[in-house]
Amino acid sequence: MKRWIVFSLFAAFQMTAAPMLRVIAVKDSHTIVVDNRGVAAEVRLAQVIVAPADEENATAYLRQSLSNSWVMIESDATGAAFVYRSPDALFINGELARGAFRSLGTQMVYVGEVTPGAKRVEKAPPVKAAPRVTASVPHRHRTRRR
Q1: 63 in the Ramachandran plot: left (φ > 0), alpha (ψ -120 to 50) or beta?
Q2: Vertex 18, ends 76 and 1: CA angle to 5°?
Q3: Residue 38 — left, alpha, or beta (φ > 0 → left; ψ -120 to 50 → alpha)?
Q4: CA distance 64 to 90
Q5: What's the pLDDT score for residue 6?
Q6: Are strands 39-44 and 70-75 parallel, antiparallel or unpaired?
Q7: How far is CA 126 from the centre of its chain?
Q8: What is the 3-state secondary structure (H, E, C) of the chain?
Q9: At CB < 8 A and 24+ separation, what contacts does 61-65 make?
Q10: Rounded to whole angstroms, how far apart are CA atoms 23 and 17?
Q11: pTM for this structure?
């Protein structure tokens, strides 16, 4: 009986876990192509509205953000998907909705990125502590009571 409960809990966890898939292409600003166990599958992004004038910039943003990266996909009831980039959990649908693709002219910097050719910062020499000065307290003489 205990084995059956453990197995059913394990199976339920496996069914609810969202898979990590590798992005192999970006079709347009609403669709990406992922590798799902050796099969190319198209994934339609949920709740993403891009103006026709911004279509090219949004597609370029997706290519720059998702090229050859891993994503976690959660599907909604309509079959559209919410996409999170790994390992930083960037919510791709939210980035497109807020118009992050409009800032493509600026350089994107990610935490942990190595900048080639950067100057090396040398450590400052250790600071020597100043000598400790103690305040002198006048000595009180005790007198004997008689």
Answers
A1: alpha
A2: 110
A3: left
A4: 13
A5: 38
A6: unpaired
A7: 36
A8: CHHHHHHHHHHHHHHHCCCEEEEEEEEECCEEEEEECCEEEEEEECCCCCCHHHHHHHHHHHHHHHCCCEEEEEECCCCCEEEEECCCCEEHHHHHHCCHHHHCCCCCCCCCCCCCCCCCCCCCCCCCCCCCCCCCCCCCCCCCCC
A9: 61/95, 61/96, 61/100, 61/101, 61/104, 62/26, 62/29, 62/32, 62/92, 62/96, 62/101, 63/26, 64/104, 64/108, 65/90, 65/92, 65/95
A10: 19
A11: 0.56
Q: Which residues pair with 42 in a beta bridge?
A: 33
**Mean pLDDT score, 94-102:** 79
- The neighbour count for residue 85, using CB atoms within 10 Å, is 17
- The distance of Cα 88 from the centroid of its chain, to the nearest Å, equals 1
d(CA 140, CA 106): 73
d(Cα 43, Cα 93) in Å, to the nearest integer? 12
| pLDDT band at residue 42 under the 50/70/90 scheme | very high
Q: Where are the domains of the chain?
A: 18-103
**How far apart are the C-alpha atoms of 108 and 119, rounded to whole Å?**
20
Number of Cβ within a 10 Å radius of residue 82: 19
Q: Is the CATH code 2.40.50.90 the one for domain 18-103? A: yes
